[in-house]
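User: Run a structure prediction on this.
Assistant: Running it now.
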Amino acid sequence: MLTKEKIKEILSNRIEEINSLNIPHFSLLSNIDEAVFKISKAVKERKKITIVGDYDVDGVSSAAIMHLFFKKFYNNFEVVIPDRFEDGYGLTPKLLEKIDTDLIITVDNGISSVEAAKICKQRGIELIITDHHTPLDTLPDAVIVNPKTSSDFPFKEICGAEVSWYLCAAIKADFKLNIDLREFLDILAIAIIADVMPLTHMNRTLVNMGLKRLNKATKPFSRAIKKFFQKELKSEDIAFLVAPRLNAAGRIENAKIAFDFLVSEDDEEAFMLFLELDRINNQRKEIEKEILESIEVGNDDFIVISGDYNEGVIGIIASRLVHKYKKPAIVFSQKDKILKGSGRSLGNIDIFELVKGCEELLEGFGGHKMACGLSIRAENLEKLKEMLNKRVLKYKKEDFFIKDFVLGEIAFSEIDYKLLEIIKSFEPYGEGNPKPKFIATAKVEHIQNLKDNHYKLVLSQKGYFLPAVIFRYDGEFDNVMTFKFSISENSYNNEIQLVIEEIL
């Protein structure tokens, strides 16, 4: 049975944190000096610079940081956020048709833009690619700044916005600009959390600093978020409340809405944009629900689904299927002869390596161990399905296991404000430092149906009573039950409550 002291010991042993002064220097990123040289030359010659972002939170955040930074010292630049439905992912030949510029800087994309790089060469456009995704065998002919192609950079798992932030630091040093880069840490924290980067090492340090700045609400966008949620924001709030709303714009309509929100200079405008993001997110939930209800999954070890789905939500659908069936999944949007797919994985299953082994069937591909994006001709879909189901057989049963980080069984007598303070002291929680979960057995004293299969319970164990909540539960409650849960504080009535994740 766990004690407070044991919990504190376990949590302190699993995180690695560095002092802000020890964050790796930008010079450790390969080619960053060459990138700064090209940017410096373009600025001195008053050339036009175009920043090409992406339509997810990381891509929009990367573009927002670059926009806010460049705006302080240079005005001949523009930011282009691709439209998922019209332009495709990243720097594509189709997107290049809309761009007339001298220098392109990609943020959070570009590592697989081989064809677009050739077109830039032909048109005499200088190309700098800043990205964090896993490179393919063939790299674009461009100046590439990416931690995964930088042998000297000690921490590979940083997001696209962090690479952009590093580029800003290098430009600042070269130009000797009086700009405080801490000003962008609020946006940076959102990107790190939203892109599910491990919250250890430098990521943990930057998120801690960024959350403090976000809660100080020094910008219109952060004041809008605080006004909407009326609470102190933690990493889990970013992951489950803020990020889905920012992501929804690029999934359903246009990510430019999220970008405009982050760079807004007016409080009223920022709040109206966030209300719009909230509306779009509710629309996204409805679309997602309809698709999930229509899908039938067979007995394959690798789930491959295709249908006339909204391209913007297929990544979320893949995630839902992975968590429901405990198998890797790819969901394709079938609009014409070329299908666009989004894949998600689990446990130790490397979806990037599995899909890369089927490269001869693909029209396009990119990603990393846990997620990928791809395109394929409709006639090759069944062949891909067969190949993936053969290739995934090399993994053992335990490789499919989603680590839940349950610390162990705990008695109600140990659950109090002292334990809550111990748990709080190891925030932020997220990838690489998940919120601790526990097991307990208790008697159900009271059940209250809140709405939509959300329940509030009163539980008892050996004379100790605790409130609990469980969401989206459609089963029955036994008089006595064993369950998996996390511990939180109900901010409305300042009481400790258990958040039940699963009844065992």
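Residues 267-294 form the longest helix (28 residues).
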